[in-house]
Specification:
- By secondary structure, the protein is an alpha/beta fold.
- The chain has 2 domains: 20-212, Hexapeptide repeat proteins (UDP N-Acetylglucosamine Acyltransferase, domain 1), CATH 2.160.10.10; 220-291, Udp N-acetylglucosamine O-acyltransferase, Domain 2, CATH 1.20.1180.
- Helices cover 15% and strands 25% of the residues.
- The protein has 4 helices and 29 strands.
- A hairpin with a 4-residue loop joins strand 26 and strand 27 (205-209).
- Helix 2 runs antiparallel to helix 3 (241-251).
- It is elongated, with a radius of gyration of 23 Å.
Length: 292
């Protein structure tokens, strides 16, 4: 006797495609959902929500209100997006969450609306927010940012493109994390983390440059060496900060990444924690360039 769902005997339950919007989902009439998006069982989609083409919303997701999801974004179960900011200064004004294209938002993630009329909490394109990470009001993530499990970002944090924040790390409000920086797990910071940095500890302290991340993002050996030498001059030498920055502006003007680092330091509002050790090792061979 053939199986019920064998090619010879099609299963009648499989002859029709599953609906893109599960009948148990509660969807506000003002929500805009592209036809190719999928909304799973028991989801709640609130007012002024836009879900882009190809988005996949797993069961039990809550998108409260005033949230835009870019095309191809995937949201796992029990994520809560577009909730009110945890900010006593919030007065009920209209504010937003804007999540970019092709993001992956895993289980239990929370992203809150901004404080301030028409202000926005932003998650850029191609970001991954792992399980139970939190993005608070008015925070802005660039593109290709990764937040590992249980990362907590307070309000008004800025995380630049390609940064990687490891699990259980806590970032104080108004802190900026520079491009392609990496922070190790169980860390915390009240001060800015410069671009290309590798940081560890609580509070997070500079320990070197993110040479693997730089290499993966197309920085050649000459560029990586220039960044390393700039780090040495700013933080691992006896030269004053002001003198180091002025020197780098004139002697390494051709290196865009070094000038990006200089500008970041000059504009830092919260300051940058100096390394505990001022010793540096730069052995021959780029893969071995480290700071002790």
């Amino acid at each position: 006797m053939p199986l019920l769902d064998s090619p010879q005997t099609p299963n009648p339950l499989h002859t029709q495609p599953l609906p893109a919007l599960h009948p148990t989902a509660i969807i506000d009439p003002t929500a805009v959902i592209e036809p190719t998006a999928t909304v799973g069982a028991y989801c709640v989609i609130g007012p002024q929500v836009t879900i882009g083409a190809g988005c996949v919303i797993a069961p039990h997701v809550v998108i409260e209100s005033h949230t835009i999801l870019g095309e191809g974004t995937q949201v796992s179960s029990f994520a809560a997006l577009g909730g009110l900011p945890q900010d006593k200064g919030f007065g009920g004004e209209t504010s937003w969450v804007h999540i970019g294209k092709r993001c992956v938002i895993r289980e239990g993630v929370t992203v809150h609306r901004a404080t301030g009329e028409q202000k926005t909490t932003v998650v850029g394109d191609d970001c991954m927010l792992m399980a139970y990470s939190h993005v608070a009001h008015n925070t802005v993530l660039g593109n290709n940012v990764i937040l590992a499990n249980n990362v907590l970002l307070a309000g008004h944090v800025q995380v630049d493109d390609g940064a990687f924040i490891s699990g259980m790390t806590v970032v104080h409000q108004n802190v900026r994390i520079g491009r392609l920086a990496i922070i190790s797990g169980a860390s915390g910071t009240r001060q800015d983390i410069p671009p290309f940095a590798m940081c560890d500890g609580r509070p997070a302290t500079l320990g070197g440059i993110n040479k693997i991340g730089l290499r993966r993002n197309g920085f050649d050996a000459t560029e990586r060496d220039a960044i390393l030498r700039a780090y040495h001059l700013i933080w691992f030498s006896d030269v004053s900060m002001a003198e180091a920055l002025t020197t780098l502006e004139t002697t390494m003007a051709e290196h865009a990444a070094v000038q990006e680092l200089v500008q970041f330091v000059r504009t830092s509002k919260r300051g940058i924690r100096r390394p505990v050790s001022r010793q540096m090792s730069a052995r021959e061979g780029d893969d071995d360039l480290v700071m002790a």
